[in-house]
Amino acid sequence: MGQADFVRDTVERARASVPAGEVLRAEHMVNLAVRAPSPGYFRRPRVLPSERRALGSWLLTPFAWLLRIVTATLSPFERLTEAFTEREKRKPGKPFHGGWNSMAGHLARGLVPRTKNPANPALAVMQVTDRRLHIVYVSRVRSLTGQPGPVEAGWGTDIRNVGWIRDRSDVVGGDHEIGFVDGSWCSVHFSGQGWSRVADVFPVRLSHLDAVPRPA
Questions:
Q1: How remote is the C-alpha of 125 from its chain's centroid?
Q2: Which of 43, 108, 120, 204: disulfide with 140, CB 3.0–4.6 Å?
């Protein structure tokens, strides 16, 4: 399966999670941008509990537990670093702003979920409907009979909480910053082709030459 077919298949599988009564306006595979900070292990949501545990996951289990121990040990330092980071002045082009409990922080956390299979992380699809901005998780792990794995709706927010989207393809093609009414924003990356259709449905669309809007 080619990249375009893979993206199309993933997006189509996620479509079943559109809430009843909502009109889907745009959808695309999405990741946290490489240049954006990644949330710590325990900040990431646990998703796809019905997913089958693959063989590779069993082999990686000892390393996963070691990672949890290290993360737990470093968490006080992580909180201290975050406290100082949140006092920084906003800078246009900064890949993330607002802290992990802001709207952008919840989006960033939702794009790096935890599953039973860290070697085969879940795929994320962003859906924009007439009412909400959603993240949907699509499993990469097939069942023992070869059937596709589960699909699960994740983080979402009322579309009225979304302020703008800013094209940052001047940094990496497909990179965008998404801003919220609380003044926070997060850098994401839309994989594959056709991401402009997603950007078109946001209330305000900006280029990299535009300044980051200030909250009202």
A1: 8
A2: 120
The vertex-126 CA angle with 120 and 129, nearest 5°, equals 150
pLDDT 10s digits, 72-95 = 555 555 555 544 444 444 343 468
The structure's pTM equals 0.81
Spatial separation of the C-alpha atoms in residues 104 and 143, rounded to whole Å: 34
Q: What is the pLDDT of residues 141-195, one digit of tens each?
A: 987 777 889 999 999 999 999 999 999 999 999 999 999 999 999 999 998 888 8
Tell me the C-alpha distance between 61 and 49, whole Å: 16
Rounded Cα distance between 52 and 81, Å, is: 36
For 70-161, strand residue ranges (E) read 96-97, 123-129, 132-138, 151-158
Place of tokens 């949890």: 68
Q: What residue spans of the chain are helical by DSSP H?
A: 3-14, 55-85, 103-110, 196-200
Our measurement of the distance from residue 4's CA atom to the centroid of its chain's CA atoms, rounded to an integer in Å, reads: 20
